[in-house]
Amino acid sequence: MKFMKLGSKPDAFQADGKYVRYVASELVTDVTINVGEVKFNLHKFPLLSKSNRLQKLVSKAGENSDEIDMVDFPGGPKAFEICAKFCYGMIVTLNAYNVVAARCAAEYLEMTEDVDRGNLIFKIEVFLNSSIFRSWKDSIIVLQTAKSLLPWSEDLKIVGRCIDSIASKTSVDPASITWSYTYNRKLSVPDKIVEEGITFREKIESVPKDWWVEDICELDMDLYKRVMITVKSKGRMDGKVIGEALKTYAVRWLPDSFDDSVSDARTWRYKYLVETLICLLPPDKGVGCSCSFLLKLLKFAILVGVNDSPREDLVKRISLKLHEASVKDLLVPARPPQNTLYDVELIQCIVNRHLMHEKYIQDEKNKANGDFILGHEHVTLMNLGKLIDGYLAEIAHDPNLTIASFIDLSWSIPDSARPIQDGLYKAIDIYLKEHLSLTKAEKKKICGLMDVKKLTMEASMHAAQNERLPLRVVVQVLFFEQVRAASGVQALNNNARDTSNSTTNTDEEWEKTAADDNKPLKKQMSRMKIKDEDFRKNGKLLKKNSKSTKSGVQLLPSRSRRIFDRLWVVGRGHVENRSSETSGSSQSPTSVAPGDTKSFGSSSRQRRHSIS
Predict the structure, then answer these.
(1) CB of 566 closer than 8 Å to CB of 607
(2) Please, what sign has the CA dihedral across residues 574, 580, 583, 588?
(3) Where are the compositionally biased (Basic and acidic residues) regions (predicted)?
(4) Taking the C-alpha atoms of 39, 42, 47 and 51 in order, what is their torsion angle to the nearest 10 degrees?
(5) pTM for the full model?
(6) What angle is formed at CA 173 by the lines to CA 169 and CA 174, rounded to 5 degrees?
(7) Alpha-carbon gap, residue 562 to 556, rounded angstroms
(8) What DSSP string describes 141-201?
(9) pLDDT tens digits, one per residue of 361-395
(10) How far apart are CA 583 and CA 591, in angstroms?
(11) By three-state DSSP, how is residue 67 classified?
(12) 3-state DSSP assignment of residue 22
């Protein structure tokens, strides 16, 4: 911290009780100056030689009165004592904590150069310009102390000069920063400073761009707002850094949770804080602040009753980067007259806006790149699908959540956002579990949201055993699992035939090859034949394993097991019929006799009739 010493004489001020101060001297005091509740018994000559105002007051009081009242003295008794000591030539130490009060007091007393050369105002101004405003932390301290001295500190442009000094330093190249600053947040890996074996230059270059955001968090909201407006007006600060600064300030002053029982004064303060943070957000709505931070602001905005305009601005910003949010971020508490736990309508609105924006962006890109979805947009869409499915699973526990709200939110997500629908199945299962009073029609309607063909094996096995699902859905799950298994067997057979054909082609080429190339080609043939044998063995093994899966189905409930038994016969006949038609040769490991195929086919038709 910078400081300046004035004067050379020892301090002779003494106290007589709590409210009386005097100068220990052989000369009798001849004037009493009242500053607040404190009386100062002093001498006229040293005071009048420095203060033009005291000259006027003493002259106005006349010879009959030796007592002067200082009304509304800026800085109070302590500031006046600094000025009085300077008049006596006693040692006075100025620093960032008392310099503003001393400057305001000197202005009140009119301690200018017209009265005496090298007066207190001049010396304080030199100290401010040469030391205080050049120091990062001293400028912040002075700005904090200036608030209690308004309007004096504002009229003397101390506040404005401090703000300009702070804002200018925030935009300095981090590589040029040599002063100390506070940084308690966790550094990202690229920003970590390794103390051991690092040069001074490397250490300076490792200063993060947001090095300044924590130090200004102690400022009052009004002063913080002015600093941030000045920082933004300079146009040299990245939007992400602005967002980090606002997030740090919100973490410092907003509580983790909000209780409706807090006082009206505190509620008003939170409301003003949230509205101020919203108005300070970077102008580019697509960058700067994380979606998680914006949703936290939105939650508080709703709780403290922020006006519609700031809330609308927040919703717009959130809708642009909704895919970055987490399920926890979306859990915005509902307010009366809503009877649900969370504000589902708000999230529905944000989702719709997000999809409209993504559609507009995609249409614009299609005009330039052709009609296809770029990889980034596809990933964004899948992230949104996972997010909303997770949110549906969370709100499905709410007994007051209507089936219409659940279905509307689910339908708002396009099919391309859900290549796998395990998350949606989980949400539906939770909703069925928590809402046991649903009718069969309602169960059918909500289960119609998912496509059983997009369930993984694990989810399909769970669904096949799920007694809460309608029978029709279980049948679909079991049927498509059989189709999936059949496709796997057919794919393996095709691979085996492709390998056999490639071996034949190799034989023909080998017969036409020169004798010098026989050895390497024979080795290649051996490898190909081994592959062919492996495919044949694997085909038989897979067929055997497919038959054995029937015994594993005994773990299913009786209803699902009976359906599975019937579907197994249907699926098996279908697969082997397709295999016999396509192979046309006894070399295929899955080929069957024509009579067998016919019997499986007739059995299949009978089984289908019995199921339907």
Answers:
(1) yes
(2) positive
(3) 511-520
(4) 10
(5) 0.73
(6) 90
(7) 9
(8) HHHHHHGGGTTHHHHTTHHHHHHHHHHHHHTS-GGG--S-----SPPPGGG----TT--HH
(9) 777 776 766 555 555 667 888 999 999 999 999 99
(10) 7
(11) strand
(12) strand
